[in-house]
Amino acid sequence: MICTIRINSENRIGKIDRRLFGSFIEHLGRAVYGGIYDPAHPSAGKNGFRGDVLELVKELNVPVVRYPGGNFVSGYNWEDGTGDKSKRPRKMELAWQCIETNEVGIDEFQEWARSVGSEIMMAVNLGTRGADDARNLVEYCNGTTPTYYADMRRKNGFEQPFGIKLWCLGNEMDGKWQICAKTPEEYARVACETAKVMKWVDDSIELVACGSSNSGMPTFGIWEETVLRECYDYIDYISLHNYYGNPDNDSAAYLGSSLDMDNFIKHVAAICDKVKAEKNTDKQINLSFDEWNVWFHSNEQDKQIPKWTVAPPQLEDIYNLEDALVVGTLLITLMKNCDRVKIGCLAQLINVIAPIMTVPGGGVWKQTIFYPYLHALKYGRGTVFDVETECGFYTAGGKDIPFIETTAVCNDEENEIIVFAVNRSQDETCELNIASEFKLELTRHITVTGDDLKAVNSPDTETVSEMTVDCGEIPVLPRQSWNIMIYRRTDI
After folding, report:
1. Which of 72, 69, 73, 205 is nearest to 139 (CA)?
2. How far apart, in whole angstroms, are the C-alpha atoms of residue 20 and residue 292?
3. CB–CB of 477/432 below 8 Å?
4. Digit-coded pLDDT (tens) for 364-384
5. Are the CB atoms for 397 and 376 separated by under 8 Å?
6. In CATH, which superfamily holds the domain spanning 4-8+386-489?
7. Chain-centre distance of CA 81, in angstroms?
8. What are phi and psi of 127, to 5 degrees?
9. Which one of the listed residues 172, 322, 405, 416 is annotated catalytic?
10. Largest pairwise CA distance in the chain
């Protein structure tokens, strides 16, 4: 099989916002307790955070982490996670039916985020709470005035503000599973008024309003229009959430999941532009795809977990090679829509549907999806070209799916063009030809591949990992593979 991609310097989609490849840590399962935080672990520092996890997250260089939820946030009282740990309440956590100890809250999490070099994307509770508590939380985190909540932070040992600049106005508020779910009109009003007072406390913050919980919701579309019409002047982004899976074991169709993501993004962008035109404004609302991943492996085992325990092993999907390829195509899709999608969060980061797993009392290990995520973070920097791809198609799940999913990123600082490509074919390798006015020299070809789409990693064995391929003049993409080709520009 032969594929040609045409790169024209005039056809540029946009520059990648560094926050496009963010992640998510929710108070759910072993993401916090037993994940980033484990005071009894041999690597734990004086603050209780696992040193081995911290170092691996620093290796990824995750730009932004959404916190503390997720469904969790719609029943969360943020004050419970501040101040003296010995006085913090243990509470029933209704979203995930477990016990929340509140040993970790914003006091500790902002220290962890700073230590790994990540910005926080903070969510406020618009389920059981509302505008008053949201504005108080902004003051607690960012306030410099001699007033109650800024002084509370100082009394808790933090003289300097946390400086959190990115905030979510609730989470999935149209979902029946959400604590205090709302109609589009109910959410739009509370989100609008909450946004106003939050920005009155700190006018430097950016706000993300909730979109529909996913593209299959009966409220999808109507929800976005209602929220945007009410909140347009006060928000900066609207959120998208979607998860992908292969419960029917149809690998050919599953490998085409990115077509759904691309359509979802373009649909929401069109709604934003429709409301922009109605309002006759120059302001553009961009997108925050702040929950996305593969999630289906753990559904049955989670039904067996007893309620009301601390940090049960929930949502611990074990990923295989085909999951890594799907994640790769989703990352490419985000890049190809970087003109509108400015923020993205792989959900989640540790243990819970995550690229990084921990062993209680033991080490950390990398899931198959760790590698495409790492490569996007490392090499997905710069301006994305709108490349023309010429390749064959196959039909699965009622869709025509291209064998090759690809994009190209120009990194002017390094004088490089990086080509990302997934070969979906389970049978054929692919010669990849580059047609461009640039003079390019292939300096490195990294791939993640294997003979078995169902191959997984474990604490003891890393079956699926990155490999460096010998560079020829024309790179060959292995069958069922994720690839990064780094080209040095020789014309400058």
Report:
1. 205
2. 12
3. yes
4. 999 999 999 999 999 999 999
5. no
6. Golgi alpha-mannosidase II (2.60.40.1180)
7. 24
8. -95, -80
9. 172
10. 68
CA of 341: how far to CAs of 220, 236, 240, 337, 455, in Å? 18, 12, 10, 6, 32
Q: Please, what's the b/e burial string for 174-188 (b: 16 or more CB within 10 A of its CB; e: otherwise)?
A: bbeebbebbebeebb
- What's the N-to-C CA distance of the chain in angstroms? 32
Task: Return d(Cα 465, Cα 444) in angstroms, integer.
Answer: 16
Q: Which amino acid is present at 275? A: V
Q: b/e string for 393-418 if b means 16 or more Cβ within 10 A?
A: ebebeeeebbbbbbbbbbbeeeebbb
Supply angle C-alpha 365, 370, 373, rounded to 5: 155
Mean per-residue pLDDT of the chain: 97
Quick check: 237 and 285 in contact, CB under 8 A? yes
Residue 291 falls in the annotated catalytic set: yes
Q: Tens digit of pLDDT for each residue in 305-358?
A: 999 999 999 999 999 999 999 999 999 999 999 999 999 999 999 999 999 999
From start to end of 245-391, where are the E strands?
A: 286-294, 341-347, 356-358, 364-366, 383-385, 388-390
Domain spans, the chain? 4-8+386-489, 17-379
Which tokens is 457 given?
């990693």
CA separation for the pair 414, 440 (Å, rounded): 13
Phi, psi (rounded to 5 degrees) for 17: -70, 135
Catalytic residue among 26, 119, 139, 291: 291
| Identity of the amino acid at 289 | F
Pairing of strands 119-124, 98-100: unpaired
Give, as one character, the DSSP assignment of residue 78.
G
Q: Report the alpha-carbon distance of residue 144 to residue 160 in Å, rounded.
A: 8
| Cβ within 8 Å of residue 301, ≥6 positions away | 316
pTM summary value: 0.97
In terms of CATH architecture, what is 17-379? Answer: Alpha-Beta Barrel (3.20)
**Rounded to an integer, what distance in angstroms lies between the CA atom of residue 393 and that of residue 255?**
12
φ and ψ at residue 19, rounded to 5 degrees: -85, 0
What DSSP character marks residue 480? S
pLDDT digits (tens, 9 = 90+) for 413-455: 889 999 999 999 999 999 999 999 999 999 999 999 999 999 9
Cα separation, 256 vs 446, whole angstroms: 22
Q: How far apart are CA 100 and CA 256, in angstroms?
A: 38
CB 332 within 8 A of CB 420: yes
Cβ neighbour number for residue 471 with a 10 Å cutoff: 15
